[in-house]
Amino acid sequence: MSSTTQPLPHYVRPFASGRTWYPNWFGGLHGSERSWAIAFFLPYAAVFLAFIVYPVVYGIWLGSDPELYAELFVQPRYLTTVVNTLLLVGVGVNVKMFLAFLLSGFFVIPNRWIKALLVLYMLPWALPALPAFLSLHWMLIGYGGFLNSALETWFDIDGPIWFNSYPLAMGANILAYIWKWMPFWTLVFVAGRMAIPQEIYEAAAVDGATGIRRFTYVTFPLLANLYLICTLLSTLWTVGDFTTAYFVSSGAPALQTETLATFGFRMAFDQGYPRLGIAAVMVTLPLLIPLTILLMRRVQATEVQL
Amino acid sequence: MSLALSRFRMRRGLTRVAGTMLGVALAIWTLVPVYNMLLIALSEDGDEFTGTVWPSDPSFESFEVIWTEGYWYLENFWHQFGNSCIIGLAVMALTVLVGSLASFGMGRMRLRKAWLLGNVSLLTYAVPASFLVIPFTRLMHLYGLTDSLWSVIAAEVAFAAPYAILIFHQYGKLIPLELDDAARVDGATPFQVYWRIYLPLMAPALAVVATYALLLAWNEYLYQYLLLSSRRSMTVAVAINQFFDSDEAPWNYMMAVAIVYSIPPVAVYYGLRRYMVAGLTMGGVKG
Asked: Which of A149, B125, B170, B225 could form a disulfide with B283 if both were Cys (CB 3.0 to 4.6 A apart)?
């Protein structure tokens, strides 16, 4: 299509040769086909431009003053929030994905009880975040919270005041995050495992790959790309996570467990300094953009090899 | 022989015990926070925690209060519940519609650079939603959507759509293009192909995306809190958190609200559950 040997009149070329100065988005389509393709994209393009591109450009403009960043780094709590966000993403996301991957192996075992358990296990994902996290908050509250009451009643242990200690409060946030989101990714991996044709396993078993070897040489390589895509998506979604830190620990003790999103929120809306709030979260862009590019490449890789 | 057999039996027995233990541990892990919700909601006196592990004197008073809107924090409860439902259903329907149209255009129209469009949509996730909310609140004035449910719906659709497109695109590859060609030869327009062939065959992926979008809307708090300020446009998520503003904190009402608020997404999830595994099968496995 694109390689016409016959020289064409200059005014025909952009259409006939398919080579133009602009990226040829609708290459290969003509006339009504092209209009149809545009029509199919139009709704999403409108949403994307109006509610993503425009706010992003506006936000970057608002947060473009370099002095904001100098101001940001002298904020007493700012570096703690960066560390907390890294902990939530680094520990929370990775532990969650790894456990989800292992558990997906448990849930594909063909057994009536395990099938029933999967239905129950998905409940945290179906529960809205806010009620679930509020319940976890009340569960861990020092006096009369369910966890400490249970520890005292059954084991005669005097439980700690969870939200008075930084490691315990941070741990509670991370565990709450894992509790809420692990089921969804487990289901994704269950779907991934079920899509592996049984013949592959049979062939591998003939070659002696069973048990742990089957996992390392067959299952994992086949699911590695899916695992990477899911981890990248989850990382991107978690960096700006607001609900976990805001509702589980509420920043306790003394705003030490805030994340970037709750910090930015507090700056923008409680202290009336939106530009600083934007700058607080914008700091993550140098991390998120390469991750997004990596995600795009991995998604495309599945396309090419299919 | 019998030694080998008994060893085999022992190993099978051990596996079964380990599996049961794992199952019990998972069930406890999953259910404790849910149980805690019920425990608080059923307690009669909400101001303080009694430190009991069982509901000593279970009372359904808090649910009655919600039903009759009989507490001043709850006087608009069913209206707010309606708002949450409108947002949830609109986000669900629009995400499915917008996402499936775009992925049809991307996967079925034989565009040469189709993957670029998918990539552009994924760029959305380079920007955390909590970053975008600040310029977003200002832009909504410009769009004339201040205090309108549509502002929240638009934001949530914009965030759900890229994942929807990803899922649809991956699932769509399982449907042979020849089907489209056959329909086109018979004189179907691209829209008819989309409506009559593409959508029905995509049913499992549609169920996944619909559930995902609904849960996204139901999980979301920040945009609803910042964009919907008046009492009439408020959603349940925002209303629940208002309990924290009060000194006399009836926590049993709060948890009862939380339970009622959880019912719709749980019901939708369990209704669409059987499609989920099929719909989530991403092409990634073969990659």
From this structure: B170
Sign of CA dihedral B111, B112, B114, B117: negative
3-class secondary structure, A304 = helix
Q: In the Cβ-directed half-sphere of B117, how many Cα atoms lie within 13 Å?
A: 27
| H/E stretch holding A82 | helix A78-87
A111 burial type by CB count under 10 A (0-12 exposed, 13-18 middle, 19+ buried): middle
Q: Which CATH number fits domain A68-302: 3.40.140.10, 1.10.3720.10, 1.20.200.10, 3.30.1360.120?
A: 1.10.3720.10
Which tokens belong to B164? 């929807």
Collapsing DSSP to helix, strand or coil, A248 comes out as helix
Burial of A194 (0-12, 13-18, 19+ CB in 10 A): middle
* Contact partners, residue A187, CB within 8 Å, separation at least 6: A104, A118, A122, A125, B276, B277, B280
Contact A151, A140 (CB under 8 A): no
Q: Return the closest-CA partner of residue B103 out of B194, B179, B204, B181.
A: B194
Interface predicted TM-score (ipTM): 0.89
**Residue B281 pLDDT:** 66
d(CA B134, CA B226): 9
Cβ(B188)–Cβ(B196) below 8 Å: yes
Q: How far apart are CA A292 and CA A288, in angstroms?
A: 6
- CB within 8 Å of chain B, chain A residues 30-49: 33, 36-37, 39-41, 43-44, 47-48
- pLDDT for A16 equals 42
- Nearest C-alpha in B relative to A288: B126
Hunting for tokens 């992003």 — which residue is that?
A56
For chain A, give every domain's residue range.
3-62, 68-302
**Site of tokens 């992925």:** B103
Q: How far is B241 from B261, CA to CA, in rounded Å?
A: 13
Instruction: Please tell me the pTM assigned to this model.
Output: 0.88
**What are the pLDDT digits (tens) for B43-82?**
776 655 666 777 777 777 788 878 887 777 777 888 899 9
User: Dmax of chain A from CA atoms?
Assistant: 91
Lookup result for tokens 């009372």: B59
Considering only CB atoms, which chain A residues are within 8 Å of B111? 25-29, 37
Q: What is the pLDDT of residues A2-60, one digit of tens each?
A: 444 555 444 444 444 444 445 555 555 667 777 888 888 899 999 999 899 999 999 88
Q: Which of B16, B22, B36 to mutate to test the interface with A (most CBs of A within 10 A)?
A: B36
**Distance from CA of residue B11 to its chain's centroid?**
41
Bond preceding residue A253 cis, omega within 30 of 0: yes
Residues on chain B touching A114 (C-beta within 8 angstroms): 19, 23
Interface of A with B in 152-171 (CB under 8 A): 152-154
In A, minimum Cα distance to B95 occurs at A44
